[in-house]
Specification:
Helix content: 55-70%
Structural class: alpha+beta
Shape: elongated
Number of strands: 11
Number of helices: 24
Distance between the termini: 10 Å
Length: 738
């Protein structure tokens, strides 16, 4: 592989105009496609195989035109202090608002609070339920404007009015911190390379790659039902890996120049060596992201595949566009150890004989491996302790910032009707096979009403055939509570006995039940997903490092870092530590997809540093150095780059903590802290300590397995056979034969 990639890099360097033109054309094509594509909102939410989804599907077939998945809005009215909502003027204001709301072209129904008994016991709060025929993100702006206008007219009349539900669902904003993250990445690149030109190359190629990836997602969003969160995730991961991969190759290019090679040869060898590490690091990320399809949740699958596509683009750009841009830059990119005229007058940055910090740190770890290992494991173990109290759930309006109308509506409903009113359960009774459908429904109503934690049960609503009914159940606890989850399971357990007695099927659905089923499905899929991703990556790393213990150590180190990161997420978002600093206004359960998502993404990103750092060690060991010295050599050449790459990735991920979307905020923080733990504790401390303790055993591989494995030559051993300066055209012909 190293030989092939070397030829590819040299070809891109020589044919730089052609290589650059291809990527610019792809960016233009993707941009035009995104600009002309219809606007798409969030992806449709379905969970195949769950009871909540089966109930939704049943409602669609038995209640045609009901739009079970249509948007809803709860317009909450509160009377001024000392007044009742039923007072003459207040009642007239509410009825006028209800009448206006019912005129919307996408509205299917509006419930008058005075006719539907939607007034609180103290008479101060009432709500009108508005049902739409399309989902919240499919609503036209005119419908949203009409909803806001009706609420504002009632406010002008003296009432407090807030709007909850998903009808006003908005596209999340990332905020200015995303730009700050990119700015920090630029500063780190300048410090690392000592050159504005060299620092600009990774940023430029990463932005081009993300531009192509996100524009393609935007262009296909409507056709493939991709939500806005999909492009945000692709941008987050694409920026991070795009900068890192380009950084690895530019750094190796400067190192090759420092050894006296010509620029074309240096570009080829940089792509052949660091590029090999980039390919395998990218493959681990792609495996981890595509592996999310194992969970069998369409939304998660689409997010993973789209992000994986952006990572693949980042790899291809690093292998082809970086050498092309290096050809354009020429002598403006200095060899390693020299600074540009602007930043240092072109002089050497330091004396050759003085060991760098990476060398000094590696030497210390090799001398004290056991102490470093114990300290690192204990530290990560302590950080992971909060993960033992992890509670999973999905965000609702109660997790929104208090500045939003959705959150204020949530609080008003909780005050007026109880916390469970914000998460009613929909019980669906399929009595088609029953001899007495109405009797079966009455039995369900009575049994559910007798259950603990139930505040109220509404009268049943039947379909035209009279064989299917809907019953609304209001719990006494908030939607994300354990009490409400237990109630859902209790209703389903009671449904088993009812089916045996009446031949009727009882299903529980609604947004609260959907969230519970979603969390359960993710929990059930975590172990199989972990086994698949880690297993495939383990086999891949065996091929890369030709070792059993090195991949095993990489996987165990990853588990330590991801558990520590989950502990930090629990401490901030569930316990509330440093919540003010992170902009977390409401603590609560951790987003259900967070553990499985962190396992996938962090594993892939962690392997970036593992592959790049340990490949350098393997390269030194293969070329004759002793195990301990190979560790020091690997850190001498790789520690500075890996440190810079980790800081950049942390900065990029941290930029998304400023998002208005709680899911994006949590993902940004979780990935940033996970990269910190993995890069600076696991890869920089535990990896050299374990390798120092293992010595030559670290590189042991059974002979039969050594013969069976393909030789991918990540270390670049095959490059020694290449001529330093091949004849013009040789690279093209050789590449054509590969």
């Amino acid at each position: 592989m190293a030989t092939f990639l070397c030829k590819l890099g040299r070809l891109a360097f020589r044919r730089r105009h052609f290589a650059a033109l291809i990527w610019v054309a792809l960016l233009t094509l993707a941009g035009v496609g995104a600009a002309s594509a219809p606007v798409a909102g969030s992806s449709s939410f379905s969970i195949p195989g769950t009871e909540a989804q089966k109930a939704f599907d049943l409602l669609e077939s038995r209640f045609p035109g009901m739009s079970a998945d249509g948007a809803t809005a709860r317009v909450v009215f509160k009377a001024p202090a000392g007044e009742k909502i039923a007072d003459k003027d207040n009642k007239a204001t509410v009825e006028k608002a209800v009448k206006v709301l019912g005129t919307g072209s996408e509205v299917t129904s509006v419930a008058d609070p005075f006719k539907s008994h939607a007034v609180s016991k103290d008479g101060s709060i009432a709500y009108a339920s508005v049902k739409y025929e399309v989902s919240g993100m499919e609503l036209k702006d005119a419908s949203k404007d009409a909803l806001n206008a009706a609420a504002q007219d009632a406010r002008d009349a003296g009432l407090t009015v807030e709007v909850g539900g998903d009808a006003l669902q908005a596209t999340p904003e990332t905020g200015s911190t995303e730009v700050i993250g990119i700015a920090i990445a630029a500063v780190v690149l300048v410090i690392t390379f000592g050159s504005l030109i060299a620092a600009g190359l990774p940023l430029l190629t990463a932005l081009i790659g993300v531009g192509i990836g996100v524009s393609t997602i935007t262009a296909l969003a409507s056709v493939l039902d991709l939500g806005s969160t999909t492009s945000t995730l692709a941008m987050m991961i694409g920026l991070a890996v795009g900068i890192d991969y380009a950084l690895f190759i530019v750094s190796r290019y400067r190192a090759e120049l420092a050894e006296g090679r010509e620029r074309e040869e240096a570009a080829g060898r940089a792509v052949g060596t660091a590029g090999s590490a980039v390919v395998f690091a990218g493959l681990t990320v792609v495996i981890a992201l595509v592996g999310l399809s194992v969970v069998n949740i369409p939304m998660l699958t689409k997010m993973g595949v789209a992000a994986a596509g952006t990572v693949a683009i980042a790899v291809l750009i690093a292998l082809t566009m970086i050498p092309a841009l290096l050809g354009y830059a020429g002598r403006r990119v200095q060899p390693a150890g020299k600074k540009s005229r602007l930043l240092g007058g072109g002089r050497a940055a330091k004396k050759e004989g003085k060991p760098n910090m990476g060398t000094r740190w590696a030497s210390f770890v090799v001398r004290r491996p056991l102490a470093v290992l114990l300290l690192g494991v204990v530290g990560l173990g302590a950080a992971a302790i909060p993960a033992a109290s992890l509670e999973l759930g999905l965000p609702d309006d109660g997790s929104q910032p208090t500045s939003t109308t959705q959150r204020r509506a949530y609080d008003l409903l909780s005050d007026g009707f109880g916390p469970g009113f914000n998460g009613p359960l929909m019980v669906v009774v399929d009595a088609k096979a029953s001899d007495d459908p109405k009797g079966a429904v009455a039995r369900v109503t009575d049994d559910v009403n007798d259950l603990k934690s139930v505040v109220s049960v509404s009268p049943a609503t039947y379909n035209k055939a009279g064989d299917t009914a809907m019953i609304t159940v209001v719990p006494d606890a908030k939607p994300s509570s354990v009490t409400t989850e237990d109630l859902v399971h209790s209703i389903r357990d009671a449904g088993g006995e009812i089916k045996a007695d009446t031949d009727s099927t009882v299903l529980v659905t609604g947004s609260t039940a959907m969230n519970i089923d979603f969390s359960q499905k993710l929990n059930d899929a975590l172990i199989p997903y972990l086994a698949l991703v880690v297993g495939l990556a383990f086999l891949l790393l065996i091929v890369v490092f030709r070792s059993i213990l090195v991949p095993l150590k990489a996987a165990l180190g990853f588990l330590l870092s991801v558990m520590a990161a989950l502990g930090a997420v629990v401490a901030v978002f569930q316990w509330g530590w440093l919540s003010g600093l992170m902009g977390v206004e409401e603590t609560g359960p951790i987003m259900s997809m967070m553990p499985i998502f962190m396992v996938g993404v962090v594993f892939g990103l962690a392997m970036d540093y593992e592959v790049f750092l340990v490949t350098r060690m393997r390269e030194a060991y293969v070329h004759g150095e002793k195990p301990g010295q190979a560790i020091v050599t690997g850190f001498k050449h790789g520690a500075r780059v890996v440190t810079a790459a980790a800081v950049i990735m942390i900065a990029v991920f941290s930029g998304f903590i400023g998002s208005s979307e709680s899911m994006i905020k949590m993902i940004g923080f979780g990935l940033a802290i996970a990269v910190f733990f993995d890069a600076f504790v696991v890869r920089m401390a535990l990896v050299p300590a374990v390798l120092a303790l293992l010595g030559k055993k670290a590189w042991w591989l059974p002979r039969w397995l050594d013969r069976a494995l393909p030789n991918v030559d990540v270390e670049g051993e095959g490059l020694r056979a290449l001529d330093e300066k091949p004849r013009d055209g040789d690279g093209d012909r050789e590449l054509a034969r590969v």
